[in-house]
Amino acid sequence: MQESYDRRIDWQGFYRERLQNLKKEGAGWKALCPFHGDTNESLSVNMEKGLWHCHGCGESGNAQTFLQKAEGLSPGEAMDKLKKLAGIRNEPKAKFNLTEYAKAKKLPEEFLKELGLKNGQKSGITIPYYDESGAVVSNRQRHSAASTGPRFTWSRGSKVIPYGLWKLKDAREKGYIVLLEGESDTQTLWHHGLPALGIPGSSTFRADMAQFLTGLKVYMHQEPDAGGETFVKKICDGLVDAHWQGELYTVSTPGHKDPSELHVKNPKEFKDRWKVAMDAAREIDLASMAVKADEVIPGAPVSNRMPAEWRVTDKGVYMVKEEGLYNICILPVLLGKRLKSVDTGEEKIELVFRKDDAWHSVIVQRSTLFQQSKVGILADRGLTINSEVSKKFVKFLAALEAENLDILHLQKSSDHLGWITGSRFYPGISEGIVLDIDPASAITVNAYKEAGSYEAWKAAMMHYRQWPVFRFVLAAGFASPMLNLLRHRVFVIHMWGASRGGKTGTLKAALSVWGDPDILMTSFNATKVGIEVLAALYSDLPLGIDERQVAGEKQQAIESLLYMLGEGKGKIRGAKAGGLRNTKTWQSIIITTGEEPLSTDSSHTGINTRVLEIWGKPIESEKDARKIYTLVGDNHGWAGPIFIRKLVTEMAGGDLKTNYNALMNYLEENYEQYLGSHLSAAAIVCLADYYASQWIFDVPEEQAYDEALELAGKIVESGQTAEEADYCNRAVDWINSWMAQHKTNFTPGAQERYGDVRMDVGEIYILPSVLEPELRKAGFSPKRVYRDLLEQGYIRTDGDAKRFKKTVKMDGSAVKVIAIKTTAMDQQRSGWIK
Questions:
Q1: Which of 396, 521, 559, 715 is close enough to 544 for a disulfide, judged by CB 3.0 to 4.6 Å?
Q2: Burial 625-650 (b: 16+ CB within 10 A, else e)
Q3: Cα-based distances in Å from 167 to 6, 148, 198
Q4: How many CB atoms lie within 10 A of CB 390?
Q5: 327 within 8 A of 349, measured Cβ to Cβ
């Protein structure tokens, strides 16, 4: 047959339609192999005979096997397709009849007629199924004696029941019965006077069929193929579901597929050989057989029970058909675990597959796995699935999950680090939690690991803690998980000053508490969305952002970023499928560095309250500043998990909140002139310093507390007072400075008049057309400045609070001005008003 279609099919057209990047190379042709993740055009094709071979995965064959693998066709279906392409018509075959069947099975035709078999009206033979009373319930047509093509069909209205129910009386007299797949094996045993019951197909046994086996010793004949495994397993599953009680055995016929084949080879010796097989029958522990997961592939990281219609081998995933096994995926695929997010309740499934001599796993949404249109996305994760077989692959996954639902344990998962559920925290206390992290974030997550020596890290940090700023920032690394426990809002610690002061090294030291600082630290050069993603991933762990100066003069962008981080939640975004995505959140301490401050005189008060800015050198020794990079790069990831385990114990005792309140009360009593937000930030960080001193650095408790109080005082005093942080006061300061710079423009007769000073009424008049552009240039919002000045009673208006202006006479003309009371300027100690 091969030669008949070799010359009739255009092999170039055939393969060009089915292969990517097909091109001629020398005397042959090459293309990307569709059966593995090929990127090097490893598939060679012989265009004379249609043969192919992949030098990458080792697969090879002809056009028929190509269609079987690529399109999931049976051998017969693939051959029919090739015949059609070649223009070859199938010759009509003689009708299959009872005489031909009897001859093929070596059974007397009269015996078969006694069982009700007869020739069909159009073709094949009809096999009646009787119930226990002898009434016909169903009719099954057999169309061929061969094992190819559609051999069986059921008449309309037929019920699938066991074959031979009317003969159960004989079985009960003997006390046992043999379950076989199909009719011909059953007929063979009946012919030899043996009790048998036929199951019409390897996967059709149901729990309700167990009623016919009550009181009988049951032998299941297992054929030496995948269908035989399925046959036995489905019966065991059904019997367990029916709570069947009794003795159960498997019997096989070595060297022969089934009893019919054993009989056909030598009818006279059948009984003796069958007796040998029955004597060698193996008893089955039904309960363990039904729930046991199969070791599908030796060495696989998981075990799955195989559904009746499917098989997984080291060569891939196969459909089980009557004609044999047909490959739908060249990689073995199993199910690992079911995951349920503790945050969203969303369920996912872990797929495990073998590729390039190693096992890999991917965690995938159920909506992706069980939709034909989406499952192809798995190709990007290394799992070879093409559009031709996606429907079959989805069907396989659904069947595999259904078969293993009771042993696929549901585990809690999280898509972020930090506090996950209850007292679980990653890293440190993450038992029972699976991290469901996208591949792009894997390198970051893997940075949370131990490296080098804990003792070396500890000794180095004890030396560097002599400098207050370093010690405070290091303590902030420990303190970040405490924000969630104390319901404290997110805040920023910003170290700024000249270069070579150890700012970046200090930031790395804080991050080294938990992992590799070189990977964990990001830069202001990252996008706002990128920093948002990192903040959500770290969740309760410190976020370190280096080099404020790389952001340049984009103060508005800096403040927008700080507001977003300070809110503790990301931007609300729509989902592709409609609705809204889950909004990402975090509750951590943000630690930043730079040669410039984050805030300016014109920054809104909200920025000043969110940011604790510390100026100066955190490491006063330049030599030590250089050494810190290597120390924390080589030794990291030890202290954080130790600290968090101790913290959970402290939290359980209720001391955490009590100690925080005590430290906060101390700061409020002694530093009341400073911003409350800065006091609370200092309190939480210095509380972490108090704990770390004891748990990590072995400092006695009383000494640890005294040092924490001293540290808190030094940090608070380096910050802004409430008055200095007030937006309105800073605006008045600026206006005062601006007027001093331009005081000649406030005198009558000035060439360019900006306003007037009227000491007689205690007011300073400034033309809005002059003041407002200058305010904007300095970074202030004119409307915000006017509103704050009005609320604090610093300006007078015509009574229209929305306009903030007053009508006055200037140089004989009525004009609108901003009328600031001279007392407001006096309060700011202007010095230039006479």
A1: 521
A2: bebbbebbeebbbbbbbebbebbbee
A3: 53, 30, 11
A4: 19
A5: no
Q: Does domain 98-291 have CATH number 3.40.1360.10?
A: yes
Q: Which fold has domain 2-86?
A: DNA Primase; Chain A (3.90.580)
Summarised one tens digit per residue, pLDDT across range 119-178 is: 987 778 999 999 999 999 999 989 877 644 457 788 888 888 999 999 999 999 999 999
Residues 655 and 553: their CA atoms lie apart, in Å, by 45
Per-residue pLDDT tens for 771-790? Answer: 999 988 887 878 878 888 88
Distances (CA, A) of 788 to 766, 821, 822: 17, 14, 16
The answer to whether the CB of 509 falls within 8 A of the CB of 628 is: yes
Task: In whole angstroms, give the CA distance from residue 600 to residue 594.
Answer: 14
- Does this model's pTM top 0.70? My answer is no
Return d(Cα 316, Cα 330) in angstroms, integer.
4
For CA atoms 695, 701, 707, 711, the dihedral sign is positive
CB 549 within 8 A of CB 596: yes
Chosen CATH of 726-827 out of 1.10.3470, 1.10.150, 3.40.50, 1.10.10: 1.10.10
One-letter identity of residue 588: S
- The two beta strands, 755-758 and 806-810, are unpaired
Give phi and psi for 129, each to the nearest 5: -110, 120
Q: Which two tokens stand for residue 648?
A: 């959970």
Contacts 24+ apart (CB under 8 A), 528-531: 528/557, 528/560, 528/561, 528/564, 531/561, 531/565
Q: Where are the domains of the chain?
A: 2-86, 98-291, 310-414, 454-619+626-631+638-722, 726-827
Residue 23 to residue 29: CA distance in whole angstroms: 6
Distances from the Cα of 819 to the Cαs of 149, 303, 802, in angstroms?
Answer: 99, 82, 14
DSSP string, 24-83: EETTEEEEE-TTTT-SS--EEEETTTTEEEETTT--EE-HHHHHHHHH---HHHHHHHHH
Q: Are strands 20-25 and 28-32 parallel, antiparallel or unpaired?
A: antiparallel
- Contacts with 519 (C-beta within 8 Å, 6 or more apart), sequence order: 443, 444, 447
Tokens at residue 355, please? 């590729």
Task: At 687, list the tokens.
Answer: 């509380």
3-state helix, strand, coil in the chain (%, to 5): 40, 20, 35
pLDDT 10s digits, 184-218: 999 999 999 999 999 998 778 999 999 999 999 99
Question: Count of alpha carbons within 13 Å of 784, Cβ hemisphere only?
Answer: 16
Q: List the beta bridge partners of residue 341.
A: 413
370 burial level (CB within 10 Å; 0-12, 13-18, 19+): middle
Measured CA to CA, the distance from residue 436 to residue 442 in angstroms comes to 10
Please check whether residue 716 is in contact with residue 671, taking contact to mean a CB–CB distance below 8 angstroms. yes
* Strand ranges for 273-346 from DSSP E: 282-283, 310-313, 316-321, 324-329, 333-341
DSSP string, 771-791: HHHHHHHTT--HHHHHHHHHH
Nearest to 76 by CA among 161, 155, 148, 159: 148
The structure tokens listed for 677 are: 């937000």
What number of CA atoms fall less than 13 Å from residue 18's CA on the CB side? 21
| Cis before 481 (ω within 30) | no
Instruction: Find, among 717, 647, 727, the residue nearest to 682 by Cα.
Output: 717
